[in-house]
Amino acid sequence: MSKKKVRIIIIALVVVAVIVGVFFGVKAYNNYITQQQIETRQKDIESAYADFEATNDRSEKLKILSQFIEDKPSTADEISLEVVEAVEPDYTETLGKMKAYFTDDYNSVIKKNTFSDIDIKSDREKPISAIENLSKLIITVEDEKAIVFKSDNGGYKNISDTINGLINKYRKNFTDDYSAVIKANTFDSPEKIDDKDKLNNAITSLTKLKKTVEAEKSAVYGNDEKAYNNIVGTIDGLISKYKSRITTIEKEAEAKKEASYSTENNNTSADNSDNQSYESNNHSGNNSDSSDYSSGDSGSNNSGSGSSDNSGSSGNSGSGSGGGSGVYNSWYKNGDGRISYFNDSTGEAWDDQGNSWNWKEIQKNS
Fold first, then answer.
1. What percentage of the chain exceeds 70 in pLDDT?
2. Given pLDDT bands bounded at 50, 70 and 90, which one contains residue 361?
3. Helix (H, G, I), strand (E, B), or coil: what is residue 121?
4. How many Cβ atoms from other residues are within 10 Å of residue 72's Cβ?
């Protein structure tokens, strides 16, 4: 082999050795750089989680989570695929722990406010409190969903459906209760009811229900003003009907009372008129008989002077039996049934017991 060929071979071997050296050197360098990038990314992940754990401020945690999502390693940030693949497990695990802080809180509130049918029927305050707590939670979930449930619409739907399902269940329990009270106090053809107690009891029950609905409005109806106004309008309508019917019943009763009183007065007046006519005729006949008797028996002691007791008691001598002349302008029936007669022109007065007097003389002497 000539020296020239040997020299060429040696040069070729040196070139190959240099190339190989450069290749392995570059590879080693790249591996070093990659490892440095991986370690840097892992430290960034650890630092972000440390900051997340260090704060108790929910809004601050949400900001850290939001930034952590934005800083997700990606080849778009001129990071090699090798680095992305190397840090992805740590990143995914840390992201899950951060999100769990929020989702675990959601589930904790849901658990504390989940009650059985027996619970919500036996203790009215439990579902009211639960509705208020769950309503606040759904607002929180809505505010945080863009970050906590980013790229996880299924997780958001599960949480929101669970919350809304419980709220609707509890609200239905109340509205069913309201409807039951309304149904129990709704009468067919109330205008035909004459039982005031029945109507008053219904009014009392409906008035109490209205106060309950008003007190529970926020929990049961939330922002649904239409549903609230509908049930209050139904209650008010029934109360108004029943009150109107009671007023009608009372007016009808008063009208019957007045009609009965008027009939009784008319009957009494007719009886009094008959009695007065009878007494007048009877008294005139008695006096006429008495006058005839007195004039035909002048020798008797009853010569028109009446009884001595009457003369003494009245201070006046009347003519005829009992002292009455038989002519009177008015009469009076006192409480014990005794009737007195009066002659307005002469002042003579007498009663049906045989007593007589002159009221003008009594007034003059008094």
1. 71
2. confident
3. helix
4. 14
